[in-house]
Amino acid sequence: MSDCQPFIIENAISFWPAFSEPSSWKNPTYLISAVGKHRLVPVEVGSKYTDPNWTQKLVPFGQYIDSIQSGDESTYLAQYNLFKHSSSLQSDFIIPDYCFVDAACLDSQKYLNPQIDTVKQCCGNTTLSTNIWLGPANSVSPLHYDDFHNLFAQVVGYKYVKLISNKYSDKVYPYPGSCMLSNTSMVDAEYPNFIQFPDFKHIEFVDCIVGPGDLLYIPPRFWHYLRATTTSISISNWF
What we know:
Helix content is 14%, strand content 28%. The chain has a single domain, classed as Jelly Rolls (Sandwich). By secondary structure, the protein is α+β, with helices and mostly antiparallel strands. The strands form two sheets. Strands 1-10-7-12-5-4-2-3 form an eight-stranded antiparallel β-sheet, covered by helices on one side. The longest helix is centred in the first third of the chain and has 9 residues, at 61-69. It has helices at 28-35, 61-69, 87-90, 103-108, 117-123; strands at 7-9, 40-45, 55-60, 75-80, 129-135, 140-144, 150-156, 159-164, 206-210, 215-218, 223-228, 232-238. This is JmjC domain-containing protein. InterPro entries: Cupin_8 (IPR041667), JmjC_dom (IPR003347).
């Protein structure tokens, strides 16, 4: 991770309980029982959060799962810590050890594990934010960057991902600095308008498909765009 380049580890998390019965996250009945049919969750309404008509609303979790199964692609449960409401879901996955590796520890060949306080003191890495991304096909996260390392775990379904180095930040046309979307590009990363955004044609990018069991590392401030190609459940681990 020290050279800040993205990479994929295939089948890195396939051993998680979330991949097999009776706790498979592919099973909507299990998800509803684990979270609670009437648990209110915040969903995004609209094709993406940069749309002018985008909004959010609270819906019962069972109703949201039913809407996905019925083919509704208008809502997205994005960047939400659902695990704090469900000990069952919390026990269905394991925070990847890579989240607790620090450059200082790599140099000394020591690895940080959250259960080992002495090693934690060595690295001092105690900040971790874990969120779920659960949505139908065509759920989109527009081209943007985050300030943290991200180990992105794909549990159910597939996502298309486009990655752009931050050395091209002056060519991706971020929203103005005074705007809350200053970490987000104004360009549609899949279908760019080169007339409106001519410099975007000069960027280099890598793209990939992440599938069940894959871990994708996204470095801090690395621009990334994601679109679900199927019903999808992912976990982001920011550290």
